[in-house]
Amino acid sequence: MGQSSKVVLDTNMLLAVGELKIDVFSGIEKEIGKTEFFVPEEVIQELKKLKEENKTKKKHAVIAEKLIEKKCVVLEGKGKNADKKMIELAKKGFIIATNDKELRKKIKSQGFKTAFVRQKKVIVVE
Questions:
Q1: Residues 67-108 pLDDT 10s
Q2: Domains defined for the chain, CATH in brackets
Q3: Which of 38, 58, 89, 102 is an S-S bond match for 94, by CB 3.0 to 4.6 Å?
Q4: What pTM, to 2 d.p., does this model score?
């Protein structure tokens, strides 16, 4: 049995579950096989903030939090910027699941993998 891939989910990827009605978890697993999912504490903080500040995203943030509880391992954070944390984790061998174009570009330019939603319905890992 092969080792499972480690994927870190960014805030916008978790919100996509509710916004786009897409199962990012099985989409990623379909692409790369057995996967362990992680969420940095920084992302959880962003979700909490979104729930307070943004009524339209609130229900998506609540869905995201429930999914984190069920499917993800929380990585302790030092309250850094979530994007910086993602780059740090990419360097440690994690695949970064994000729909943030700038962040994806930074990570890919350093030779690391990202997962993202293409055409609002398909998960792609590259």
A1: 999 999 999 987 778 889 999 999 999 999 999 999 999 999
A2: 5-125 (3.40.50.1010)
A3: 89
A4: 0.94
